[in-house]
Amino acid sequence: MIIGDDILARTCKDMIETILLTLEDATKGTIYRVGPMPVLQAVRVTSGYRDPSSGQIQWGLPEVSDYNFPGKSWEQYRDRPGSVLEAMGWCVERQKSWTADDPYEDLRSVRKQLSGEIEDFHHMEPVLVRKSDLYGEDLTGLEYPLDHQGKPIWQNNEYVVAAVIKIHFKPFRIKIGDRSTKIIKKLSRTLGTELISLHIRGTLADAQKNLTRQRLRSCNVLAHELRNTLIKLGFTTSAINTEIGYLREQWEAQVAQAFPHLETRRAILTRLNELLQSHLPLLNGNKHLKGLSQNLMASQAEMATLSLMPHVAERWLHHKILPKWKELLADTPLWQSSEEEILDLLNRLQDAIWTGTAEELAARMGHIPEDLREAWRRLAYTDFTLEKAPMLDEIIGLLDHPELRIPHQLQTKKILISLKVLAEMIPDVEERANRIICSLKNGDTTEDI
Length: 449
Known about the structure:
- The protein is α+β, with helices and mostly antiparallel strands.
- Among the domains are: 5-204, 2-Layer Sandwich (Beta-Lactamase); 265-357.
- It is built from 17 helices and six strands.
- It has a six-stranded antiparallel beta sheet, with helices on both faces.
């Protein structure tokens, strides 16, 4: 099984970040790559931990580990008589999770077996991939890993283990079969397995890579701002809006295809940056204006790449772009010869932001069935909130429309189905949290709560 290192690292970080944002008591996440058969080399891919002071997620592999590159082969960590029992061997061979909810009694703690020292509270979950997704329908001739008795494992199973997720928790905050382990299992099966299997089969293209980077960037922003469990669970709303943003991006591509004479937001922003760049080298003697120009260029470049809601794009224009252009044009004569064109471009940008929402344009797009274009345009320009949770069923139904054909349509649908599970869970968690907070404010005792 061949997985590109950069794609795998991004996928693993996305999965770890989602789990850490979802589970308040989780402190660290690590993902191990497992494969190929029959060697089943287990290698630590990446680790992320939550900084308790800032709430940000830090990445890297700082600790020394037997699973750092090149990792350990199946013969080294499998169960065998007289050897140390490892949780990794349990997860891989049995395709089942391992929960260390009492480190003092953890039978598969390597440190405890070798030196008598306890490890921390953690949960390990195998990431399963269907054999048919990796090897096709004909599975004859596959060479399976062997246990210590020489018997093949997984031969009669539908899945193979592609990776193992390890999530560390605060003391006494994890139990076998509790809500946290169920969420980790759900995410590993619905998100991790699908992403890894699709990466292995090479079906993700540039558009999906860009979407993943945007989603990761959104996660990083949220990770910096979120301060409590409810806000961290709010990541779900942002992730859903990112998926809606992809549908909006595809809709605007259809509009641009149907009306090639219309000027796009990206084209206008590109021209503005060309005009800005033309005189930027002449600002070397003015640090303030040079910094302002570089900041403006970055804002315009980012606005061109993001699929923003029109009202958000308008705020972006009025707060991040227009004031900087006004200051530049007022404080330096360098762009005086282009001022008329710049002001005209900024006016046209205001109109281009709303092009995709125009009903009269949609009505003339005869290459798309009427029911599809009406639903697509309406849903693509919806700002999702938890109060609009039923709308997810409409979006998933839209992705099932027989006439809708966009890149990564099935993958987008699967991601939304997974996020829908979290979105439906949040109101109950919020209600419980509010009840506890209210009770604590009123001075109720633990028994009352």
